[in-house]
Each structure stands twice: as structure tokens, then as C-alpha cells.
């Protein structure tokens, strides 16, 4: 179709973003997706591509013609091979069809004194059933569910409202065809935004446990393949910048990391001014997901700054539990260990629930102040050069305890 014959309606946004880069890409690899137009040459989908093609000076462009009237009437042949539309094109077709149906409804009302025959007067100011009817007709035409188009429409609408924050989701959705993945990521990002309403922690803490919502890297061939987590995720840079770290000058930090993020966690410790001391590995009772290897472990990286040290030596680097927990929840055994060897006050960042004696901060708990003593561990705080007066680890013989209790009687 001659490019000058394509008419662009007012419903397309004027700010089309970075057209130069798109034009360069089309110049290198060609136009991968034709424009979508009506039989009257009115553009339905592809405003950015049209602008890029005009910039490149293309006299003619490949198009796919969609008969909106035929879709509205449901008159299309099931055996006709139709184009595989991108998700954003589906949304554009739905919008164009909705606009056509609205105009027809207004004309019917105008011709019948304000109410179309067989319909009650619309006192709400909205056209009844238009969105649902439109969505089902488009869904029938392209062979997907109405719910799928609804999800795609939510992603496109979010990108139009805030292109800098959500625009990449539409690009990835169109590239991969994964509408569900884009929709889930949209909900995650919206959930993370709620965290800004959580007040920051008050005070400074000598022991900090941090379990950030890691964002998993995408696979090269599947840009929306991410672990399905019910919360907003953060990049490494966002974790460094957005985590409210209420660490005292002398502080011990436990930073939880998945197998895929151990390297990133080391960088975060350095950015926060902590020195890495060791890793505690939690062995879970069931296998998880993974690309090369299926994960069954998570790691708590131990770091410190200032003069503090653990109140007990000889702690194993392995923590084994037998109870399966909900996603991202950490075992009680870990917190009991921290309470035994780390000084108060304690705080749990990105916490799922509040714990006795702990301060907590996170989307699900807000900010909860600590209760109980403000100093000491299970016994007392320990600085470098001091000795701890704590019970020996479980399983050590009583004779080896310098301050231990008498041996238990044999059973």
C-alpha cells in the first residue's frame, strides 16, 4: 500500500518515543510486522513503525487489512488464515472496534430519540456491554480468550500512562508473545510501588537481616521467563539504592541471596560498606527450579563493619530444615541462630511477618518496632577482644564447655 494513503486517526498518541532507533533497526533487518489498517486505509496498529518508515522514505509498505465491520458482525471465515497479531496489535484492534461500535450506538440512539430499539435508556453515561462485546468479538477473530486480551490491554494501558516505567513490558510482550509473563511483571511492579507508602525504619541496629526481592535475569530466548513471585522485584542497583539500611556504625549483616545472585550480593555488601565474612547455606527439603541445576539451597552472606564479631565460634556453614515453607519465607532456625550469636537490637528487612524481640520492615508488615531488651544477644553483646559467655553448640560434649553446665544424665 502507498505509505501516503495511510490515514492516522486522532486516537494515536503524539509522543511516539525514540523513532530514530526503530528506523535504524528496520533499516538493518527490515519490517518484521506489517502495519494493520482498515479496508479504508485507516491505521489500526503500527503508528511508531509508520513514522519510522516515513523517516526512511519508504514509498510503499506491507499492510494487513482488518475488516472491523466484519468482526463487529462476526462475519469472518473460520478457515481463512489470519495474521499472527502481536499482543499490542490485538489491543489496537479491540480499541478500533470499540470506537466503531460506540459510534454506531450513538447513531442508533440519535435516530430513535436517544435510545436504540430494544434497549433501555443508558443513564450511567457509559455504553452498556461494549467492552465485553468488543473483547469477545476480537477474541473470536484472532483465536484467543477474552481474558488474554484483557491482560494485554492492561499492559499497554500502563505503558501509555508511564512509558519510562512500563514501556519495556510492551516491547518484550510483542517480541516473545508471552502476555501472561508481561501481565505478571506488571503486577509485580505495581506491588513494589506500594512499598513507598511503608515508613522507613526508625533507629539504628547492630544486627540486620536483609532478604531483598531479587529480580531474576531473563533468558536470551524468553525475555519474560521469570520466577512467578507474588511481589515486586528489584534489580541490583535498586536494592542498593532503595533499601533503607538502618545499620549502626558497628553492625553485623546477614544478606540472603539465591544461587543466581550470590555474585550480586557480594557487590551489594561492598556498596553498603560491609566486609564479607562467610556464607551460611540453607538446605531446603524439596527441589526448586533452575536452568542448569535445580536449586535446593539459599545462602545468607555474613558481613560486618566496625568492631563487632559473632558471640560464638565453630558455627557450621550448613543449615538444614525439614519443613517446607511458603515462597521466600526463611526458617525459624535461622533467626534463633542469629539471636544466639548476634547483638541486639535486631531488624528484619523485607520481612514477611513480625517476630518477638525483632524490629521488622516490609510491605507486608510496614514498620514494627522491636520489643524487649535493646542490648545483648541471647546473653550479651560481644566486641573484638572480648569472650562470650554462651552455651556451647548443640552436640558438643559437656567436658569441652569452659562455662558449660553439668553433663546430662544418661538415658
Key features?
8-stranded mixed sheet, Rossmann fold, 411 residues, 2 domains, alpha/beta, 33% helix, 11 helices, 11 strands, disordered C terminus, elongated
Question: How is this structure best described in words?
Answer:
The chain is of the alpha/beta class. The chain has two domains: 3-191, no CATH class; 201-399, Rossmann fold (3-Layer(aba) Sandwich), CATH 3.40.50. Helices cover 33% and strands 14% of the residues. The protein has helices spanning 19-29, 47-56, 68-73, 87-111, 130-142, 146-161, 163-176, 179-193, 236-242, 262-271, 332-341; strands at residues 35-37, 43-45, 63-65, 205-210, 247-257, 275-283, 297-305, 318-320, 346-349, 358-362, 366-368. It has an eight-stranded mixed sheet with strand order 8-6-7-5-4-9-10-11, sandwiched between helices. Strands 2-1-3 form a three-stranded mixed sheet. The longest helix has 25 residues, at 87-111. The chain is elongated.
Secondary structure topology:
Layout: H1 19-29, E1 35-37, E2 43-45, H2 47-56, E3 63-65, H3 68-73, H4 87-111, H5 130-142, H6 146-161, H7 163-176, H8 179-193, E4 205-210, H9 236-242, E5 247-257, H10 262-271, E6 275-283, E7 297-305, E8 318-320, H11 332-341, E9 346-349, E10 358-362, E11 366-368
Parallel strand pairs: 1-3, 4-5, 4-9, 6-8, 9-10
Antiparallel strand pairs: 1-2, 5-7, 6-7, 10-11
User: In what range is the share of β-strand residues?
Assistant: 5-15%
Largest sheet: 8 strands, mixed
CATH fold assignment of the largest domain:
Rossmann fold
Classified by CATH, the class of the largest domain is: Alpha Beta
Query: Mean pLDDT across all residues, rounded?
Result: 76
Number of helices: 11
Q: Can you give the helix content as a percent range?
A: 25-40%
Number of strands: 11
